[in-house]
């Protein structure tokens, strides 16, 4: 391992570690021991399922509830958990449990895996991530218990745990059946618990710990400043963007689907609101659905594509280009329109380096989606709407489908696997794997005007 670290960059190690886990998961799921009927699963389907789990996406080519047996479900759950926490984080945890000290290279690798700018308090941060993850998943499982146990008996305990982990990790893989959570579209408790798990994990671990630290200071040191005033800029942007996107998404779905009998048209007012809220939450990389995506109106389809492309927030289990990235691009546009050189948010200045990275993430993700759509159209038949939807769902690690994934051929499955993998490790990470960074030029080159717009 140390030899590999000397010859590979941290980005390459992280991307390869995900590939290794996907390969191991594929081999396990392809065996007859993992399927319900005792026959070997075609490797491409096993690989697709393993990729979907590790990349916490949720797209599947076979029905999870009926195709796999208990061993298969255990493998799937383990892959989801590894994918949610990250392969490097899991490896570091085992190293710590064995009583071994982390080397400097291991700390740097972990820092890159969590996208952190400092190695200060890194081990403590990891412990808090692991404990926080298991605690929230346990609470979610307990909340699910009354419903699933009453419906499935003792098996409901397993169902509660599985869906709590799947919801928190934003995987969206379920044991209910081919219709996901559509049978629970009117079940208030299941909807609320699932949405809560998705939103909490989608905020990102940085926001968690910042909020908890501020609350401790507020009530432990009799601090008179408000909680909001003490939050870091990152947390403020995440809270504002998350709330804005969830609210706007819910309102738009409610308006666009109000009379659509294929989705919420026949529901009562409270049922329409609940289904609209769940749709707005799940499109932020969760994967569970309570209404058929195939029946969405065209305006709702466009809203869904935008929300899937945006995703959740950094340093969490969500995918997409991230809420902060979208906010920074928007702020940069506003600053340009107003003729400002500095980009200001909540009385803080955002560095040009951050703006460039945000722009790179959006553009690389956009061009990757266009390329994937074109290739998918070349190799697979189907409507353009279904193909575009599926690509954005895979790249955003969302996992909701218009029933297209289950009917595509081998080429289409491989293309979507690549999309899910790219969406999980991040578009910039994939580019950096094959890129040698330029050395900084000591002297600045002459500046020249270029007409834009």
Task: Indicate the topology.
Elements: H1 2-7, H2 10-30, H3 43-54, H4 64-67, H5 70-85, H6 87-97, H7 104-113, H8 122-152, H9 155-168, H10 188-203, H11 205-220, H12 227-230, H13 233-257, H14 269-282, H15 298-310, H16 323-337, E1 343-345, E2 348-350, H17 352-379, H18 384-395, H19 410-425, H20 427-433
Antiparallel strand pairs: 1-2
Helix pairs in contact: 2-3, 2-5, 2-7, 3-5, 3-19, 5-9, 8-9, 8-10, 9-10, 10-14, 13-14, 13-15, 15-18, 16-17, 17-18, 17-19, 18-19
Written overview of the protein:
It is a single chain. By secondary structure, the protein is mainly alpha-helical. 64% of the residues lie in helices and 1% in strands. It has 20 helices and 2 strands. A two-stranded antiparallel ribbon has the order 1-2. Helix 2 packs across helix 7, helix 10 packs parallel to helix 14 and helix 17 runs antiparallel to helix 19. The longest helix has 31 residues. The chain is globular and about 65 Å long. The mean pLDDT is 86.
Pairing-aware structural class of the strands and helices? mainly alpha
Give the strand order, joined by hyphens, for the main sheet.
1-2
Which percent range describes the beta-strand content? under 5%
Gyration radius (Cα, Å) is: 22 Å
Quick one: overall form? globular
| Number of helices, counting only DSSP H or I runs of 4 residues or more | 20
**Separation of the first and last Cα atoms:** 50 Å
Low-confidence segments, ≥5 residues, pLDDT <50? none
Q: What is the count of β-strands? A: 2
Average pLDDT for all residues:
86
Order of helices and strands: HHHHHHHHHHHHHHHHEEHHHH
Largest sheet: 2 strands, antiparallel
Share of residues in helices: 55-70%
Organism: Eubacterium plexicaudatum ASF492
Subcellular location: Cell membrane
Transmembrane segments: 12-34, 46-68, 74-98, 129-150, 156-176, 188-209, 237-256, 319-337, 358-379, 411-436
Keywords: Cell membrane, Ion transport, Membrane, Transmembrane, Transmembrane helix, Transport
């Amino acid at each position: 391992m140390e030899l590999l670290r000397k010859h590979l960059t941290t980005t390459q190690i992280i991307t390869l570690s995900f590939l290794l886990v996907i390969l191991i998961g594929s081999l396990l799921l392809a065996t007859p021991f993992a399927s319900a009927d005792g026959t070997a699963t075609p490797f491409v389907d096993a690989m697709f399922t393993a990729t979907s789990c590790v990349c916490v996406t949720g797209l599947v080519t076979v029905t999870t509830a009926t195709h796999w047996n208990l061993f298969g479900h255990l493998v799937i759950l383990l892959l989801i958990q590894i994918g949610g926490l990250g392969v490097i984080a899991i490896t570091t945890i085992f190293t710590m449990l064995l009583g071994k000290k982390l080397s400097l290279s291991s700390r740097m690798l972990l820092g890159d895996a969590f996208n952190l700018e400092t190695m200060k308090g890194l081990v403590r941060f990891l412990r808090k991530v692991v404990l926080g993850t298991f605690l929230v998943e346990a609470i979610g499982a307990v909340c699910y218990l009354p419903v699933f146990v009453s419906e499935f008996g003792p098996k409901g305990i397993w169902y509660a745990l599985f869906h709590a982990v799947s919801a928190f990790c934003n995987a969206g893989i379920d044991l209910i059946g081919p219709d996901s959570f559509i049978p629970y579209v009117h079940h208030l408790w299941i909807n609320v618990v699932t949405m809560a798990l998705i939103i909490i994990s989608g905020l990102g671990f940085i926001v968690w710990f910042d909020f908890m630290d501020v609350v401790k200071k507020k009530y432990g040191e009799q601090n008179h400043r408000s909680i909001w005033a003490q939050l870091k800029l990152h947390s403020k942007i995440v809270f504002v963007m998350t709330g804005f996107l969830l609210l706007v998404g819910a309102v738009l779905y409610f308006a666009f689907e109000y009379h659509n009998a294929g989705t919420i048209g026949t529901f009562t007012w409270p049922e329409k609101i609940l289904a609209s809220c769940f749709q707005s939450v799940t499109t932020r990389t969760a994967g569970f659905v309570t209404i058929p995506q195939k029946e969405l109106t065209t305006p709702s389809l466009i809203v869904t594509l935008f929300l899937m492309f945006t995703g959740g927030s950094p340093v969490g289990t969500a995918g997409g280009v991230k809420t902060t990235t979208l906010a920074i691009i928007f702020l940069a546009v506003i600053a340009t329109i107003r003729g400002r050189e500095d980009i200001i948010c909540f009385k803080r200045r955002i560095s040009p380096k951050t703006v460039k990275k945000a722009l790179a993430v959006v553009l690389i993700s956009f061009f990757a989606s266009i390329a994937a759509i074109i290739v998918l159209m070349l190799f697979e038949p189907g409507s353009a709407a279904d193909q575009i939807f599926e690509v954005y769902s895979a790249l955003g690690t969302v996992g909701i489908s218009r029933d297209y994934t289950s009917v595509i051929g081998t080429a289409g499955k491989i293309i979507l696997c690549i999309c899910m993998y790219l969406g999980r490790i991040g578009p910039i990470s994939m580019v950096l794997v094959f890129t040698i960074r330029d050395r900084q030029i000591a002297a600045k080159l002459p500046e020249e005007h270029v007409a834009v717009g």
